[in-house]
Amino acid sequence: MNLFIYFIRRLWGLVPTFIGITLISFFVMHLAPGEPMSIQADFNPKMTPEMRQRLRAQYGLDKPLYVQYLKWLKGLAVLDLGKSFAPDRRPVWDKIRERLPITLLINVLSLVLVIVVAVPLGVKAAVRHNSLFDQITTVLVFVAYAAPAFWVALLLMLYFGVDLGWLPISGIHSLMGYDQMPWWQKALDWAKHLILPVFVSAIGGLAGLSRYTRSSMLEVMRQDYITTARAKGVPEHEVVYRHALRNALLPLITILGLSLPGMIGGSVIFESIFAIPGVGQLMWTSVMARDYPVLMGNLVIVAVLTLVGNLLADIGYALADPRIRTGVQSDE
Amino acid sequence: MSRQVRHSLLRVFLANPLAISGITLVGTLCIIAVLAPWISPYDPQAIDTWHILEPPSAQHWLGTDTLGRDCLSRLIYGSRISLLVGFVAVGIATFIGAFLGGIAGYYGGKVDWVIMRLVDIMLCFPTIFLIMAVIAFLEPSIWNIMAVIGLTGWMGVARLVRAEFLSLRKRDFVLAARISGASDLRIAFSHILPNAIAPVLVSATLGVGGAILTESALSFLGIGVQPPTPSWGNMLTAGKDNLEIAWWLSVYPGLAILVTVLGYNLLGEGLRDALDPRSRERG
Amino acid sequence: MKSFKHILVLILTVFFAASGVADAADGGPDYGGAIVVGSIGDASNLIPMLSSDATSHNIAGLIYAGLVKYDKNLELVGDLAESWDIEQDGRLITFHLRHGVKWEDGHEFTSADVLFGFNTITSPDTPTAYAGDFLEVEKAEAPDPYTFRVLYKEPFAPALSSWGDIVVLPRHLLEGVKITESSLARKPVGLGPFRLREWKTQEKIVLEESPTYFAGRPYLDRYIMRIIPDPATMFLELKAGGLDWMGLSPMQYQRQTETPFFKKNFSRYKYLSFSYTYLGYNLRHPFFKDRRVRQAISYAVDKEEIIRGVLLGYGVVATGPYKPDAWYYNPDVRRYPYDPERARSMLAQAGWKDSDGDGWLDRDGQVFEFTVLTNQGNSLRDRTAQIIQYRLKQIGINMHIRALEWTAFINDFIDKRRFEAVILGWTLGQDPDLYDIWHSSKTAPKQLNFVGYKNPELDRLLVAGRRTFDRRERKRIYAKVQEILAEDQPYTFLYVPMSLPVIHKRFRGIKPAPAGISYNLERWWVPRNEQKYIMP
Predict the structure, then answer these.
(1) What angle do CA B128, B132, B138 make, to 5 degrees?
(2) Model confidence, pTM
(3) Separation of alpha carbons A147 and A144, rounded Å
(4) Is the dihedral of CA C211, C213, C216, C220 positive or negative?
(5) pLDDT for C390-414, tens place per residue?
(6) Residue A274, SS3?
(7) Helices and strands in chain C: count of H runs, count of E runs
């Protein structure tokens, strides 16, 4: 019951954030010179000023900005984000919907990869604080972070795709014969195509998480109860993995939620390199083509997804740590 | 800070080999950037179409690019641009973050609520999306790029400074300043802020690396620093199409970015360890 | 080959063709197999009259067919029209259409479809860039299902060639529907050799052989276009076997495909493309109004250097708006060899001097500084711009470069005349007509004379050139046109690049010709034992 109230309270707390997201998404686009309609109107060489006016009215662009915003917000509530300005004139939500799953899949997989690799690294580094292992992993994760993603992607493609021929270069599944594959072959086919993109999108995230785990562990290891446990003669192994780790990992849940937008942002780069038709590429093409409805839609959907991600992280945190939901909450 | 504390800070810092290598890398780089006009063997923009894509040789230590320009000279001049982007973008972010975070932490209440909601909101957007959108509408000039990277990167600093202010605003020295009649602004920024310098410095150091990476990502998308100005990002992007026939085109800028970002991160981590009183105890 | 004339070229995939090795016919052609082609951008709209990008036109060209088409020797031949009569000094054309041609949905193709297409393209509600030639028509009619007749207001030389595939639409599916809202934009119904099987946005477009194609089904089962936004990735994909056909960059052609692997698996082709690249000036701009300034810049830009450094020799200097092997090409026009001294003195005559010694020219306190716009993602143009920038800097002109995405470039800058100079290209039609690009009546917003060039003498010649069918007369007229343009330099004409396509060796029946290679795509085939992709 407590948890439920906590949940409602958190949800209520998100309302202003949500409104802020929609405001920013809406107004960023209206900062741009010219107005959203101009592209379309200009496309027609026979467009007279009267027709232009009529079209403005049709799109509601003659109304005050706040009226336009409210109208857009109303559409957003039912996922009606208007129609794309691209020549195909498709509904924005259709465009986003068909791109979202692949981007989410890759990001979730790479998040899992990051956790699986970074957490043990961070723990080890903390346990052997300042050892050679600590320093080597520190350098390695920073190297992984510091290498520009598109460069690494190309080098890997060249090596694994062309020189060794082990992995496909681009795309998300085989071009030919894919439809005839049994499900397990399909899964294998996907897996082969996703190895490089997932890897490339994950390596940049290793540094953050492993460093965070390391310092969080160090912090916990200094706590009294660890000292107490040690003093009581609990084996070191057990101290680390049973007592310390659990407490050190709790704040990581929040970190994961916060890392979501960064990862989706990275999609722009690797989706372009690996020719993956995801949200990142959609964002890129719509930015470059000044396809305002798609742009606004994309911004708002991604931001709201992040918001939901954060909410889930908070709930996960609350489930794991009873102090939170009973209100012994710090200011942060 | 007493001299003793300062001394021990230095000691902790110097005891950390990674921090040492970090500061060495960063320092060397700054020297190269400053000395660029004197140490570059050629004009970085001099085109020579008779000698395109020449591999490294005695005349051109790092080879020539697709327009026959000397890669070493471009790399050296590129260090200026990359560092400039890093410093200015982070400077803007730090300034905004410190200012908003300071206000939020000092006043608390409604002001705090509003600013923190703004932080939450900004943190929900993938920054690269916002940067892309803004740069594509404005001209991708180097100043716009730095401004936008800065404007989308202040949230971390704001949180740090706010947290610091929250814990400090009830301390004795603040109360003392208040009693002596100092204005809010003065208290906030000349009494409290200096105490928050340590975490801000760490985050700024790490931020420089991040900004350099962001510029290279923007260059990859074609909206980074524009020619003829060489930046490591646009050199790397130009090199990627010729990866197999002219490895030197992308390997050197790639390594330059890698080493620089690595340097800043090691330096930042070193600073963190040195400035964090708890890790000092153990160090 | 397309019959529409001028699209600003956005070189996505270079599809046009080459002179190269022809395969010896080994056995008879086999059916089956597929070809996979790479493109850096997706198609936008598969109703040809509504799209203006090369990718959409490439795909639509395989799905639709026109009344006429260009054959391998660039002669107009019948396609949907079996024959035609030209009467009344060329003003009246009567097309006799093929019988029994079916749209892919089984509906019969008749002259009503052509008339419908004509009415649509000339309707003010249709946002098309190709209405121009059709507005010359006084009357179009379809007296019976197999006859289509057009009467022109005046003799119109490019008339016949305009009746290509952009004007043939399935009336039974479009009548009463607003063309901009038709589902055919994404699910086209055509009557060409291929039909659309699948279009996954930003991923791939799959075409399959159309069983109803009137000229018999193509040998290949599938034509697949993969969208790979990054050119570096595309080349790696080609090497790894994921692509059969792509346009190579000069660098790839010269330095990356000379390997045994490539020689064994791929055929490369090379020929002058149907396009040229130019530096165009906004002639309304005070700097560029002065012809001496434009001529000076032409002297300051070393075209040979650009061809050497950017095209690696795979191209020739453009002296005017035509390619050198066209029958109407005039080689005896004013040329602008690299001569920076002459450029400087001409600029000085025009009042541009470095009076404050800062290295940049100035006049009346104004520095000679401008921005050249070009389209993004074309590394050849990008490097061309950088060379020009460097050379202009040496004579004291400060040129900035800004690369813009194609649609925004055209819609926000070109069409609104918000530019100082551009580096762009034009595709070349087979007819020398240049009315749309250079006539002074075509300078209004959205029209193609966007640089704002106005020359009464040229106007007169351009009109005369369209009104006569006599080749010798036309050659004389267009020779004069080229002289005027070379003298006036409304553009600095830069180069005609070569197309450098590479195609996997298993494809047979590729016969390079003046028209290139892709004109007979439906006759390409793969021997059964080499077929890589077997359809179920």
Answers:
(1) 145
(2) 0.86
(3) 6
(4) negative
(5) 999 999 999 999 888 776 787 778 8
(6) coil
(7) 14, 22
Q: Is C394 on the interface with A (CB under 8 A)?
A: no
The encoded tokens of residue B91 equal 């400077």
The C-alpha atoms of residue C358 and residue B234 are separated, in whole angstroms, by 28
Q: Between the CA of residue A291 and those of A295, B137, C182, C394, C413, what are the distances in Å? A: 6, 12, 20, 40, 16
Residues of chain C contacting residue A180, judged by C-beta atoms under 8 Å apart:
536
Provide, as residue numbers in chain B, all residues whose Cβ is less than 8 Å from the Cβ of A149: 217
Specify if A69 maps to a domain.
no
Helix (H, G, I), strand (E, B) or coil at C501: strand
What CATH number should be reported for the domain holding residue A175? 1.10.3720.10
**H helix and E strand count, chain B:** 13, 0
Domain span at residue A190 reads 2-11+95-331
C122 touches chain A (CB under 8 A): no
Token pair recorded at residue C228? 């790979």
Helix (H, G, I), strand (E, B) or coil at C499: strand
CB within 8 Å: B120 and A20: yes
Is A54 or A125 the better-scoring residue by pLDDT? A125
Total count of residues recorded for chain A? 332
Between the two ends of chain B, the Cα-to-Cα distance in Å is 19
Q: How many domains does chain A have?
A: 1
CATH number of the domain encompassing residue B233: 1.10.3720.10
Contact A161, C236 (CB under 8 A): yes
Q: Tell me the residue range of the domain where B98 lies.
A: 3-282
Name the domain count of chain B: 1
Q: C233, C246, C314, C383: best mutation site toward chain B, by most B Cβ within 10 Å?
A: C383
Of B233, B204, B271, B188, the C-alpha closest to B16 is B271
* Cis preceding linkage at B228, omega within 30: yes
Tell me whether 0.95 is exceeded by the ipTM: no
Instruction: Out of A142-156, C106-120, C413-427, pick the least confident.
Output: C413-427
- Whether A148 contacts chain B with CB within 8 A: yes
Long-range CB contact pairs, C362-366, < 8 A, 24+: none
Residue A67 lies in a domain: no
Give buried/exposed letters for A72-93 (b at 16+ CB in 10 A, else e): beebbeeeebbbbbbbbbbbbb
Mean pLDDT of A38-51: 44
**Please, which residues have CB within 8 angstroms of residue C370's CB and are 6 or more apart in sequence?**
C285, C287, C397, C398, C399, C400, C420, C421
| C369 phi/psi in degrees, rounded to 5 | -140, 130
Tokens for C368? Answer: 């000679």
Cα separation, A43 vs C19, in Å, equals 38
- Please check whether residue A39 lies inside any domain of the structure: no
Which chain C residues in 266-325 lie under 8 Å from chain A, judged by CB atoms?
Answer: none
Tokens of B146: 């730095």
Alpha helices for C128-280 (secondary structure H) = 171-174, 231-239, 250-251, 260-265
Q: Which residues pair with B257 in a beta bridge?
A: none
CA–CA dist C208, C195 (Å, integer): 5
Indicate the pLDDT class of residue C189, thresholds 50, 70 and 90: very high
Residue A240 distance to chain C (closest CA, Å): 46
- Does residue A42 carry a pLDDT above 60? no
Assigned domain for A50 exists:
no
Q: Helix, strand or coil for residue B35?
A: helix
Query: How far, in Å, CA of C362 to CA of C359, rounded?
Result: 9
| Four-CA torsion B136, B139, B142, B143, nearest 10 degrees | -110
Which of B17, B129, B240 is nearest residue A135 as measured by Cβ atoms?
B17
Which subunits have 3 or more CB–CB pairs within 8 Å of chain B? A, C
Distance CA B44, CA B40 (A): 8
CB A36 within 8 A of CB A292: yes
Contact B54, B60 (CB under 8 A): yes
Read off the amino acid at residue A219: E
